[in-house]
Specification:
The model has no long low-confidence stretch (mean pLDDT about 90). Helix 1 runs antiparallel to helix 2. The chain has one domain: Alpha-Beta Plaits (2-Layer Sandwich), CATH 3.30.70.120. The protein is built from two helices and six strands, in the order βαββββαβ. It is of the alpha+beta class. Strands 2-5-1-6 form a four-stranded antiparallel beta sheet, covered by helices on one side. Strands 3-4 form a two-stranded antiparallel ribbon. Strand 3 and strand 4 form a beta hairpin.
Length: about 110
């Protein structure tokens, strides 16, 4: 099993979700996160005061899948989230040793 994790722009979430649903993904976890990379934040003017926003809002997706699906999901997410601008995000795949469905006690792929 694999865990596909993506950090994307909030505006890209709807497009990514639709692409994943078309592929057949039945579930995912979505979290609001903040951070920075190459953008290094930005300056804004609020009520006449210049402030520095150090962290930029992003969306984090997490999807558990079988090994064979990981590369396809990575490509789907990257394609749907891509605008060509700095800050589009990152997608990575991590191996998962064990998963248990709490309600039933199912283990492994059956718990996805």
């Amino acid at each position: 099993m694999k865990l596909v994790t993506a950090i994307i722009q909030p505006d890209a979430l709807d497009d990514v979700q639709l692409a994943l649903i078309r592929y057949g993904v039945k579930g995912m976890t979505v979290s609001e996160v903040s951070g920075y990379a190459r953008q290094r934040g930005h300056r804004e003017v609020y009520r006449g005061e210049a402030i520095t926003v150090d962290f930029i809002l992003k969306v984090k997706l997490e999807i558990l899948c079988e090994d064979e699906e990981a590369e396809a999901l990575l490509s789907i997410i990257a394609g749907a989230a891509r605008t060509g601008q700095v800050g589009d995000g990152k997608v990575w795949v991590t191996p998962v040793d064990t998963v248990v469905r709490v309600r039933t006690g199912e283990l492994g792929v059956a718990a996805i």
